[in-house]
Amino acid sequence: MSHQRVEQPASGSASEPLQYKFADLIADPVVRDRWEQVRRYFFLRESTYDMTRRCNIRCNGCYYYEGEKQHAVENSDLEQWRRLMQAEKARGITFVVLAGAEPSLVPERCQVCFDEIPLGAIATNGLKRIPGEIGYRLHISVWGDDETSYRTRGAKEMLVRQTDNYRSDPRAIFVYTFTPDNIDQAETVTRLLAREGCQVTFNMFSAPVGYTGDLRHTPNSLSRTRQAMLDLMVRYPQTVVYSRYNAVAHTHRLGLHDLYGCSYPRRNPSTDVGLGRSFRQYRTDLGWDREAACCVPDTDCSDCRHYAAGSAVVTARLFRHATDPDTFRSWLDYVDTYLAVWVRDYPRGANLSQNLVSPPGFDLI
Amino acid sequence: MQAGSNTDNITLRIAEIMIDELKLEDVTPETFDPDMDLVDEVGIDSMDLATVALVLRDEYAVRIDEDDYPKLTTIRLIATYIQDKLDSAAA
């Protein structure tokens, strides 16, 4: 596939010869409309919350049961959760991500969060249905076919139980996490989800700190995963919510921090404008630690390719991608995908770029 | 034209761009306090600043580096930053 590198101006240069003005990049009415659509969501400000220490399964490589957060004392006082949400809203948080260990086990806490901040998403294993009154986007984790799920998660017939709970539920999107072991199963799983009328997006296994298991990606598995993602996008366009630039960004040999500079507090010491200033990751005791705050705490940052991380990190790099039409279109596809995955009822458009575009300043692989 | 008045013109133009791009209400370019803290008092964030930076790049052919965003906390500071880069390019 043809690919044009874009030379980035040196940092601190006095001025730059403009190959394309921003006005040129949004001159195409289709591109302008997409830009106007995505920028309406620039008001989103996220923080994440561990909801309970409990989970109904145990998964190999689970992030929640790494590090210190699993030892926090669980707060079950709904009024204190409500006050936390009110305080979060007051400091400008407009989007919540409810996670760890398994939020579906504490629906009353999820309901309190939804009542106070109605935009958000819940990360769940999908085995216990979350009441329909909780109108967040639901991210249902899939780690391979049922045989693999049983081996790595200890739960039988996960896909059947997940789809029984969430087929035809507009809140739900399945998140298929690619490991080196399940790349070839993605087609079978996607076909099944397509048959059930479900949506699917992709995540990459990213090793927790100190992880010594066999799920860490290799250059070969990254390359195979990228191809599998691209193939599935073509074969199941109504089912797969993804873009070519998503595939490039998340299967690059370098992790997200090296490619884009992670903007979460754990890797961003800045207390100034942006995520470094506003993002917090609350534990079940409603406390948070700036030194540990990121979307998936206790991930090895050098190996981080999480979809959640990219959703904030790549999206925030607007300026770097406003260099040429195809790079900008690719970034718009990424943001459009991010919004479709995270914001319920967001009207996603068709991908604008049909090319593989490299991350600004880096090679394609 | 004196550098000072140039900077004043840039300051006014940045205010116009911010009002237009970020759809700020209840303020005009002339009444926009150039020393108001853009984050704490106006409420803009990094994406807003990136958007404004792209429009300023078109207008002045000056790149506002992402690393410099944290120190550009007021319109006056942005105007001075642009003026300095224009002066460096002209020198």
Q: What is the CATH superfamily of chain A?
A: Aldolase class I
Give the helix proportion of chain B (percent range). Answer: 55-70%
Q: Could you give the count of β-strands of chain A? A: 7
Q: What is the end-to-end distance of chain B?
A: 16 Å
Number of H/I helices of chain B: 4
Extended strand count of chain B: 0
Number of domains of chain B: 1
Largest interface by residue count? A-B, 29 and 28 residues
What number is the mean pLDDT of chain B?
A: 90
Query: The CATH topology of chain B, please?
Result: Non-ribosomal Peptide Synthetase Peptidyl Carrier Protein, Chain A
Topology-level CATH name of chain A: TIM Barrel
- The coarse overall form of chain A would be globular
CATH class of chain B: Mainly Alpha
Q: Could you state the order of secondary-structure elements of chain A as H and E? A: HHEHEHEEHHEHEHHHHEHHH
| Percent helix of chain A | 25-40%
Biggest sheet descriptor of chain B: none
Radius of gyration of chain B: 12 Å
Radius of gyration of chain A, whole Å: 20 Å
Low-confidence parts of chain A lasting 5 or more residues at pLDDT below 50?
1-14
GO molecular function (chain A): catalytic activity; iron-sulfur cluster binding; metal ion binding
InterPro entries (chain A): Aldolase_TIM, rSAM, rSAM_sf
Organism (chain A): Desulfosarcina ovata subsp. ovata
Cofactor (chain A): [4Fe-4S] cluster
SSE blueprint:
The complex is a heterodimer of chains A (365) and B (91).
Chain A: H1 22-25, H2 29-39, E1 46-50, H3 78-90, E2 95-99, H4 107-116, E3 120-124, E4 137-142, H5 146-153, H6 158-166, E5 172-178, H7 186-195, E6 200-204, H8 219-235, H9 244-251, H10 256-260, H11 275-278, E7 281-282, H12 307-316, H13 318-321, H14 325-342
Parallel strand pairs in A: 1-2, 1-7, 2-3, 3-4, 4-5, 5-6
Chain B: H1 3-22, H2 38-42, H3 46-60, H4 75-90
Pfam family, one (chain B): PP-binding
Protein name (chain B): Carrier domain-containing protein
InterPro entries (chain B): ACP-like_sf, PP-bd_ACP
